[in-house]
Write a structure and sequence with these properties.
The protein is of the alpha/beta class. The chain is about 35% helix and about 25% strand. The chain is built from 6 helices and 9 strands; from the N terminus they run E-E-H-E-E-H-E-E-H-E-H-E-H-E-H. It is globular and about 50 Å long. The protein starts with a strand and ends in a 5-residue tail after the last helix.
Length: about 170
């Protein structure tokens, strides 16, 4: 997965991991056109890469993670996928980027009086710290739940959507 400043675009040379094939197929079925199969990863010079995400086997990705950490000044997250146990995500971002900094920026830019965020993984921890109110889903990682202000139901049960809907119907969000 490669994200540029305008939109997320998935580029992959092959769909050799079952979970990647399922993600790809789900996006096609839902008319999500942000992806494409490519022969190589030689991008045009005007493409600004914001993040890179790779999914795969722990034994294959762990050495890549170590090499990236040794060679580049980037922030990395390495975590098991909740939906596809045994598959791991390796995410790489600018060392200056975080979900927390994004929440802080948006709050200031929008002159928002309150920010409320939802998350389920370790990479959401900084976002929780910068928000006014943070909710983790019940099937979140232990770190995410420990950083959240509240824990709601599982994301497998659409708990975030149900929570927001219930708060809107009550005309308030705690």
């Amino acid at each position: 997965v490669v994200e540029n400043k305008d939109y997320e675009k998935i580029y992959c040379k092959s769909l050799n991991e079952q979970c990647m094939k399922e993600v790809y197929d789900w996006r096609i079925e839902n008319n999500d056109n942000r992806q494409g199969l490519v022969n190589d990863y030689n991008f045009k010079s005007n493409v600004q890469i914001m993040s890179i995400s790779v999914i795969g086997d722990y034994e294959k990705l762990k050495p890549v993670l170590n090499k990236i950490r040794e060679s580049f000044n980037v922030k990395t997250y390495f975590m098991e996928d909740h939906h596809y146990p045994g598959n791991y995500w390796l995410e790489m971002y600018s060392s200056n980027a975080s979900k927390g900094k994004c929440v802080e920026y948006l709050k200031n830019f929008l002159n928002a009086s309150k920010t409320i965020v939802f998350g389920d993984n370790d990479n959401d921890a900084s976002m929780f710290e910068f928000s006014d109110c943070a909710y983790a889903v019940s099937n979140a990682t232990d770190l995410a739940k420990s950083k959240a202000d509240y824990v709601i139901g599982s994301n497998d049960d659409n708990s975030v959507a149900k929570f927001i809907e219930s708060q809107i119907n009550n005309d308030e969000i705690d």
